[in-house]
Amino acid sequence: MNNSIYEKKSRVIDNVVHVLIQLSTFISVSLLVVIIGYICYRGIPHFSFDYLIQTTSILKNTVGILPNIINTIYIIVVTLVIACPIGIGGAIYLNEYATNKKFVNIISFTTEVLAGIPSIIYGLFGMLFFGGVLKLEYSILTGSLTLAIMILPIISRNAQVALQAVPKSYREAALGMGSTKWYMIRSVLLPSAIPGILTGVILAMGRIVAESAALLFTAGSLSVLPKSLFGHLFSSGGTLTIQLYLEMAKAHYEQAFVIAFILILIILLLNFIAKWISNQFDVNKRG
Amino acid sequence: MAKIQARNLNLYYGEKHALKDVSLDIMENKITAFIGPSGCGKSTFLKTLNRMNDYVNNVKIEGEILLDDENIYDSRVDTTILRKKVGMVFQQPNPFPMSIYDNVAYGPRIHGIKNKKELDVIVEKSLKAAALYDEVADRLHSSALGLSGGQQQRLCIARCLAVEPEVILLDEPTSALDPISTLKIEELLMELKNKYTIAIVTHNMQQASRIADYTAFFLVGEMVEYGKTKDIFSLPQDKRTEDYITGRFG
């Protein structure tokens, strides 16, 4: 009972755990820095602006990845256009309209299973169903449809979580003033949930950019410039990641690193854009 | 004159009999207070008056509630129009994460008013009626979440007034507020009753005796006693009412 509060005890376990936790943070951050650093180190010396805006052509003796950049953006847009309305719409239904809890649980479980399936299986299905049965063959549309199924769980799951996080009091207030359910959803729920929904969309974009297995046998690997905006849907087109894979297969490591460098830039850009959009919706940041 | 008449109202949450045969009249242009201990059914009863219980699972309601002699539980009722007439203010101030202006304009927009000038007039009028205009006039377009709790609650009242209701229901509107904000809201309600019919649930018996013209005492789902506030507080007829208002339980 006569301990002074000045007699500091040394607590060994606490200190060890503290150091270990710091170490894990340090390792995860430095791994990221090392990888990005190494990609920049290997990629930037071979980077040239021409490489970005040219097509690979034996006749003209040029190499370039412009078609792949276009294909990547094109596939992202088409896939999101297909998957976002379905994913977000489904989340709204499950969260706001569905009354049968058992049904909701079954759907949620199925969604989670879908999210865990290896992407090559989506590729197999996409190739045989969209490519074969629907006769879309190797095309950007086949690839986008395949990817849309693949990212649907990510978008819908995140949208559901975001909608669940909207306080019940907002719903009460809106409905209490005579708002219809849909008016409440569109005017209060969706704007409040937008940041969370966008998180899902960003993750989904990341998956699209990163995907190779599901695209190789659906969208194919052709590297030519689009001839028309919509016609391009039905032509085969390889994304940057597919091109990266092809360069690695041919042991063209310089090109591979340049492409990797560009991919990282694109991912960063997408994140900034998404952040910006989500800030536009946040009334509290407008002050 | 009775604005709202509850007739033999029974409400069940699943097996639980939450309101037992409640009948009472809510008088036009008066303040009616519902008092009673937690879980007595006073908030549940308030919510039946504009059908906010519709969104609770497993609720069964029997009996009638007449608003100007029309049964609000009739299958022909459009809840949007009902709730335009019978507005509600909740216990926790619940402004939307939007600007002050958009909060007040929310209701009128539901009911189809799009014209900017018309909305400007409504917003200003409603904020003035809720005694908030002077405090926020220079920041109508900043977030409502930046307001203090008391201001937020007055904003919610303004938002409710903006659709020009006939009846205002308030569910313990001051229980989350400090005494000065509470006083402001009470003064406001005393003024509003000249134009509106007001029903308020309160935990605070002094509040009921200060502002209410009529008071109903609820206990475990039953409406024990109902009458003029001064009668309830000075000459309660029922032993249970007396015990509650003298602080012997609750």
Automatic annotation (TrEMBL), chain A:
State if Flavoprotein is listed as a keyword: no
| Pfam family for this entry, one | BPD_transp_1
Gene3D superfamilies linked: MetI-like
- Where is this protein chiefly located? membrane
In the record, biological process GO terms are: phosphate ion transmembrane transport
Q: Tell me the ranges covered by the ABC transmembrane type-1 domain, including all copies.
A: 69-274
Which is a Gene Ontology cellular component entry for this protein? Answer: plasma membrane
Q: Which membrane topology describes this protein?
A: Multi-pass membrane protein
Identify the PROSITE patterns for this entry. ABC_TM1
InterPro entries with a match to the protein in the record: MetI-like, MetI-like_sf, Phosphate_PstA
Give the similarity note. Belongs to the binding-protein-dependent transport system permease family. CysTW subfamily.
Tell me what this protein is called: Phosphate transport system permease protein PstA
What is the scientific name of the source organism? Longibaculum muris
From TrEMBL, chain B:
**Which stretches make up the ABC transporter domain?**
4-245
Function, in words: Part of the ABC transporter complex PstSACB involved in phosphate import. Responsible for energy coupling to the transport system.
Organism of provenance? Longibaculum muris
Cellular component terms (Gene Ontology)? plasma membrane
Query: What's its membrane topology?
Result: Peripheral membrane protein
Q: Which GO terms describe its molecular function?
A: ATP binding; ATP hydrolysis activity; phosphate transmembrane transporter activity
What are the recorded Gene Ontology BP terms? phosphate ion transmembrane transport
Q: Please provide the record's keywords in A-Z order.
A: ATP-binding, Cell membrane, Membrane, Nucleotide-binding, Phosphate transport, Translocase, Transport
Q: Where in the cell is it found?
A: Cell inner membrane
Matches recorded under SMART domains: AAA
Record protein name field: Phosphate transport system ATP-binding protein
Q: What residue stretch is flagged as signal peptide?
A: none
PROSITE patterns reported in the protein's UniProt record? ABC_TRANSPORTER_1 (PS00211), ABC_TRANSPORTER_2 (PS50893)
Keyword set includes RNA-binding: no
